[in-house]
Design brief:
Layout lengths: L1 E3 L2 E3 L23 H12 L6 H5 L3 H6 L2 H19 L3 H13 L1 H7 L5 H16 L3 H18 L5 H22 L1
Helix pairs in contact: 4-5, 7-8, 8-9
């Protein structure tokens, strides 16, 4: 589900079987089942009985590394966005290594193709590019592109931005190898 202005685009990222129930997440899914249920009841006045909520399949994974680990992951990107907005570059650079370590964890919580994982990979790629890790950035942008083109579509601005970022990386790599 992707919003573009006042339009909502609903895209299937896998084949859908006839009569299969389709669900849409109303809230952030990177929370424990109990917390999601409470928020849905408080905010939308219903109790969810989707497979994700009834099975509590991700709760064990979230708690296996300790609450502080998944909470840190959940809060990492907004904190980095705030540092960027404040132009607090030194602290932002110190936080980059932590963000890079979240890639595998995101893949567990948001299996591909998931738009949140694609956006997170795009952010990691931008940080790698900023830190002049051009080959790593190109690889990360490629991974993000594979997800975003499915979840957002070929014509979405993020897909176009990723194509431009990949081309920038290739150009810089060509300049480095010829210079």
């Amino acid at each position: 589900m992707v919003f573009e202005g006042t339009k909502l685009h609903l895209r299937a990222v896998r084949d859908i079987k006839p009569e299969e129930e389709l669900t849409i997440s109303y809230i952030e899914t990177l929370s424990l089942t109990e917390d999601r249920q409470r928020q849905l009841e408080d905010q939308y006045h219903f109790i969810c009985h989707c497979q994700h909520c009834d099975s509590q399949d991700k709760d064990g994974l979230m708690l296996s590394g300790g609450e502080s680990t998944w909470r840190l992951l959940k809060e990492a990107l907004p904190r980095l966005e705030a540092l960027k907005a404040e132009s607090n570059w030194q602290t932002l650079l110190q936080s980059c290594s932590h963000l890079l370590s979240t890639v595998d964890v995101y893949r567990q919580y948001y299996p591909d193709p998931h738009p949140v994982h694609g956006v997170q990979l795009m952010r990691v790629g931008k940080l790698q590019h900023y830190l002049e890790h051009i080959e790593d950035a190109l690889d990360t942008f490629k991974q993000a592109y594979q997800i975003i083109k499915l979840t957002h579509g070929d014509d979405h601005p993020m897909t176009t931005d990723l194509l431009m970022k990949m081309e920038e990386c290739r150009t810089e790599m060509d300049q480095q190898s010829s210079g």
